Amino acid sequence: MHFSFIGLLEGGFQKVAACIAVSEPRRGTRLLIASAMLLTCCALFSQISFADDELAPTPEHEQATAVINQLMQRYHYKRVRVDDELSAQIFDRFLESFDPQKAFLLASDIEEFEDYRNQFDDALRNARLRPVFEIFNRFRSRVEERASFAKELLNRKFDFTVDESYMFDREDAQWASSAAELDELWRKRVKNDVLDLRLAEQSADEIKDTLDQRYDRMGRRVGQLSENEVFQFFINAYTLSVEPHTSYFSPRSSENFRINMSLSLEGIGAALQTEDEYTVVRRVIAGGPAALSELVSVDDRIVGVGQGEDAEIVDVVSWPLADVVDLIRGPKGSTVRLNLLPGSAPAGSPPKLIKLVRDKIKLEEQAAKSSVVEVPMGADTRRFGVIDLPTFYLDSAGLAQNQPDYRSTTRDVRRLLGELTSTDGGVDGIIIDLRGNSGGALLEATQLTGLFIETGPVVQIRDAGGSVKLEEDNDRSIAYDGPLAVLVDRGSASASEIFAAAIQDYGRGVIIGEPTFGKGTVQSVVPLDREGKLGQLKVTIAQFFRVNGEGTQFRGVVPDVIFPTALDSDAQGERGLDNALPWAEVDAAGFEAWTDSKPNYRHLQFRHDSRYRGNSTFKLLIEELETQRVARAQRELSLVESVREKEFQERRDGREEREELFRKAFGASSSDDEDAEFPDIILDEAAYVLSDIIDESSKSQ
Description:
Blueprint: E1 3-6, H1 12-16, H2 26-41, H3 59-75, H4 84-98, H5 107-112, H6 120-126, H7 130-153, E2 165-167, H8 179-199, H9 204-224, H10 227-242, E3 247-249, H11 251-261, E4 270-275, E5 278-284, H12 289-293, E6 301-307, E7 314-315, H13 321-328, E8 335-341, E9 352-357, H14 363-366, E10 369-377, E11 380-388, H15 396-400, H16 409-422, E12 429-433, H17 442-450, E13 456-463, E14 468-473, E15 484-488, H18 495-505, E16 510-513, E17 521-527, E18 536-545, E19 561-562, H19 601-613, H20 616-632, E20 636-638, H21 641-665, H22 681-700
Parallel strand pairs: 11-12, 12-15, 15-16, 16-19
Antiparallel strand pairs: 1-4, 2-20, 3-18, 4-5, 5-6, 6-7, 6-8, 8-9, 10-11, 13-14, 13-18, 17-18
Helix pairs in contact: 2-3, 3-10, 4-10, 7-8, 7-9, 8-9, 16-17, 17-18, 19-22, 20-21
C-alpha cells in the first residue's frame, strides 16, 4: 500500500500518515543525506537478460537498493537483521502487494518461485533484483489471461436464481490449485460484478460496456506499470515487513509529495490509498471540499470519477492510485463527480454519486474554533466552552521570519480561551475537542500543553541510539486553570496523543472518548540522491514517550472515561497494523502534578454508562456502529438476486428508521426537513462528564 494526496495540505504527509512534524537536528539530517550520497557512488551493478516485452531492473534501482538497505540498517529505530526470516516476510508481502486476493497467480506459480522465499535478503544486500521482476512479469501475464477470460464471460447469461455465493475477501484463502479452479473463482467474480450493476439499475448494454472496459483496462493498466512501480512494490514490501510507517517513494511519488509539501496542489482535500482493487479514502482533510461537503467519509471507496457537471463517469476499479489521483485533481473552481461505495455500507451495496467543486484547503477551516455547549442543572444551566482543533498547525515560515501575526495553534487557542472566559459571564469549563486530529507540529503540542500547566516536560523522545531528550514547556504563564476535558477518538494521533497524555499525566484534566490511534513514532524523509532520480525514503528514527515514562506507541492514550463508541478498539489504529512497534517505556521524567487528588473515574464511568443507556439517541448511534462493524466482517455475498435485494432493502430500511428516530429526537419533523441541525451527542456527553467532575470536586471541598 502507498499513500497519495489530494488537495492543499499544510504539513502534507505528516498529517495524512498521522506523523508528527518534528524539527530534526540539522546535523543529523546532513549525515543521513551524506550517507545516501556516498552509498549511491558505491552501488552495485549487474547484467540481467529479459525478453524485450518484460520489465527489468535498472541501474538506478540497484543504486537505490544499496542506499535504502544501508539507511535502514544504520538509522531505522527498529534494528532488524536482513536474513532468511525477514526474506520470507518480504516474499509474502511482495505477492500480497499486487495480488492480495489470490485472484491471478496459481499455486504452481508460487511453488515455482518458492526458491526465492529465502533469497530476497540476498537481493537487498547485493542489489540483485532479477527475482523481483521475474515474479512480477509472471503476474503480468496472468492478469492478461484473467482479463481475457473475464471479457469472454460477459457474453454468457448468468442465472441469478442459483443458490451460490461469491467470496470477495480471499486474504486467508489458498492459491488456486489449477486454471479450472481460478476460472470458477472468476466466473463468480464476474457474475457478482454484473449483479452489482443490475442492483444499481444499469441496463444490460450498460453493464456489458462498463465491465468490458473495466476488464480491458485492468489488463492494460497492469501492462503499463513501469519498472519504477515494480521496484516500489518490492522496497515497500521490505520496509513494511520492518515497520508500518517506513516507506519508499519512487521518483514519481516523490514529485507528488513535493507538490503537496509546497502547498500548490488543488483538489478535493482527501488522502487516498489503494486497497485491493479499490481507491479508498483514508483521511478527509479539514477545510477541504470533501470535508466541507460532509459527503465523503473515511473508508469510502471511489469506484467512478466524472469531470464537470455531466461528463461520463469513468469506472476506476482496478486503476493504479496515481491515475485515479490524476483524474480527481484539477483547477480550483472546477467540478468533479465521484461514485462512492460508502465505507459504512455492507459489501454489495450500490454506490452513491456526489459532486464536489475543487478548491484549495481553506486554512481558516483548519484553524481552532470555539463554541459553547450547555448542560441543564435543574433550574440552572452550566456552560462549557468547546475548542475544536482539527490539527496542530504552525506557520513555520512566519515564525522563522519573526512576523508578528504568524498563525499557530497555541496562539489561536490562547485567544479563544480569553474570549470564552471573559464574555457572557464566562464558562464553567473547557473541552478541547481532538476527534480526528491526526497530529501536526510537535512544537505546538508542547506549547499548547503549556497553556494549562505552569512549566515542565511534555514529551520524551528516544532516538535509535537510545538517547532520550525532553520537549519542555518553559513558560510559567497559564492561560486557563479551570475544569478541563480533552475529547479524543480512534483518529486522534501523534501530537494529539502527546497533548492528551501530558494533560492526563499531570492530572490537569479528564480524557474522554475512545482509545487513541497509538502512533508514537517519528519519521524523517531522506532523498536518496541530489537529482531526484532514485526517489525518497521515509524512515522511522525515534519514538515518543509520556512524561510518566510510558509510550504512546501501540496502546495510544486510554481515556479516563471510555465511551461505548469504542468498538473493536484493539483492532483499530496502530494496533491493527502489521509489524507495528510494540508498547515500551522509559524512565519517568521529573514533573510536578497539577493536583495530588484525582476524581473517582470509576464513579464517573458508572454515571456515564447509566446516562447513555437511558439515551435513546445514543443507543441508536451504538446500534448503527454495531451494524457497520458486522458489515465490515462480512466475507461472502449471495449471488441470488432476490436475496441480495432483500438484504439491501432490510439494511436500508433499518438505517433510515434509525436516521428518522435520530432526527425526531432533536426536534426535526421528518426526513424532509433538510435544514434541521442536530446536536453533537458525543460532545454533549463530554460536557455532562465534565459537569460530573465539577460536582465531584465540589463534594470533596
